Amino acid sequence: MEMPTIIQNPKNVSIFYHSSNKRAVVWSGKIKQWLKKKYPGINITSNKPDVIIVLGGDGTILEAAKRYHHISNPTIFGLNLGNIGYLASVRDPSHFMDSLTLFFKGQFTISERMMINVEIVRDNKKIFSEEVLNEVVVQSVLSVVDLEVVVSGINIRKIRGSGVLIATATGSTAYNLSAHGPIVMPDIKCLIVTELMDHDVPTPSIVVKYDKEVVIKVKSFRQKGILSISKSKKKVDVVLAADGNKIFPLKQGDVVIIKNSSHLIKLAEMEKNYFFKSLKSNFSVR
Questions:
Q1: 125 in the same domain as 94
Q2: Among 26, 109, 179, 212, which lies 20 to 30 A Cα-Cα from 32?
Q3: Which residues fall within 8 angstroms of residue 38, CB to CB, at 6 or more apart?
Q4: Do 102 and 179 share a domain, yes or no?
Q5: What total of structural domains would you count in the chain?
Q6: Which residues are annotated as a binding site?
Q7: Taking the mean position of all CA atoms in its chain, how far away is CA 236?
Q8: For 189-237, where are the E strands, in sequence order?
Q9: Which among 134, 137, 131 is positioned nearest to 117, based on CA atoms?
Q10: Any idea what the CATH number is for the domain that residue 14 is in?
């Protein structure tokens, strides 16, 4: 939901970027100089920031939000230096400095985005847990996997195909969109169940109320062991991917449990109707 501005005179501000992004390095220097001149009382620090200025694309914004939300729950002010920049507060670099001025004057709104918890249970033991902002994907790497999707104890779908993804409204414009799932306004609290390349007749996505528990049961798949995860060297055939960066190998009989998280991510928005403007500019909505 959109909330009134609640940031007043932030004390700690962090600037988050990847050093491999050369434009971000340059902009970081500019913004640090600007902050020191305009707001000398602000600490530029990564220790419990009130605000994080993120320089990069959606992946960098996602990384910053997940890294800090449980520490100080800062407001994320994203400046797009990536590709789409759908999560960014400002997409055009020519507007960065003017928008920073407006932001520190409190002329913005906060969009709260829900997160989800995902757990993997194997032999009645929890072996994996992660908080997710965009989506959870259960997917076969090279072949076919048989899955069952259960919502509130009811089996709503049997999938024999590449897999299934569970997206938030924020994630509806990411992998879910590529899989022909629906676009959902980000202030709607929900879970989107979208199948991936089912070998049966394609069925539409299902939008589930946010407080429902979604369970994915890994029923069967053919073990080939051709590929492995680079870090662990574990052979994989079916994996769970959390926001595209946390990868965990799955086994037959594993149960994936997805439910609403109590945490919210706060993204700064500088324009009214920002969501629809982003759709038009990024996805050619007419």
A1: no
A2: 109
A3: 104
A4: no
A5: 2
A6: 58-59, 134-135, 160, 173-178, 245
A7: 24
A8: 190-198, 206-209, 214-221, 227-228, 235-236
A9: 131
A10: 3.40.50.10330
99 shares a domain with 17: yes
Closest CA to 192 of 169, 224, 225: 169
Place of tokens 């070998």: 199
Residues 129 and 147 in one domain: yes
Judge contact between 114 and 171, C-beta under 8 A. Answer: no
Contact 174, 243 (CB under 8 A): no
Domain region containing 85: 2-108+270-283
Per-residue pLDDT of the chain (286 residues; tens, 9 = 90+): 444 444 567 899 999 999 999 999 999 999 999 999 999 999 999 999 999 999 999 999 999 998 998 888 899 999 999 887 789 999 899 999 999 999 999 999 999 999 999 999 999 999 999 999 999 999 999 999 999 999 999 999 999 999 999 999 999 999 999 999 999 999 899 999 999 999 888 889 999 999 999 999 999 999 888 888 777 778 899 999 999 989 999 999 999 999 999 999 999 999 887 777 777 776 665 5
Q: Where is the binding site for NAD(+), in residues?
A: 58-59, 134-135, 160, 173-178, 245
Strand blocks (E) in 72-142: 75-80, 109-122, 125-132, 135-140
Closest CA to 213 of 156, 152, 171, 263: 152
Q: Which of 58, 237, 243, 254 is catalytic?
A: 58
Give CA–CA dist 149/96, Å, rounded.
Answer: 44
Query: Is 58 designated active site?
Result: yes
In sign, the C-alpha dihedral spanning 32, 88, 274, 261 is negative
Same structural domain, 155 and 234: yes
